[in-house]
């Protein structure tokens, strides 16, 4: 692990957003207008409760950050209200670009020869933003957020960032020094899960993962583009 940070230690918690209302099962990617479902709002409340309890136990959150997309902002809103903190919008933690965005029933489209060039290199991947580019922008954002939090609040500062599954997952793969190419079915990054980067003066020193809303996951719909 590398990507050196400033002096002091911090934790940047990457939270995946809650379940999205998507009855047509569209791969929504960066499209506007996709907000949380009723279950997703309950998940957002669960995340607010989780971090509020940590604050009461002496582990306060100092900065709140969100992807520009609606589902991320709706996920962090209850936490912002609970902690009485403002939310900063960070474009670098947005969902990955994807040429299949806006489509549903992706398998049926795979029979169209016009899109076959998109599939020429699944290791990059050729149908969207390269995995390496996603990890790079997420890590750059994490470094800046860490440096700012430590500068303002000192050693042990904590930041919560609501982002999206794929960028969070490839950032974890990088931190664990694993190949970025992967099977999407094997991602460990459930709805409103928390992937935490523990950052020291020399960069990312450790990583942890937890699922505060595990009891709600059994009722969630597996949606594309989440």
From TrEMBL:
EC number: 3.1.3.-
Principal EC category: hydrolase
UniProt keyword Lipid metabolism present: no
GO molecular function: hydrolase activity
Pfam families reported for this sequence: His_Phos_1 (PF00300)
Record's signal peptide: none
This protein's UniProt keywords: Hydrolase
Protein name: Histidine phosphatase family protein
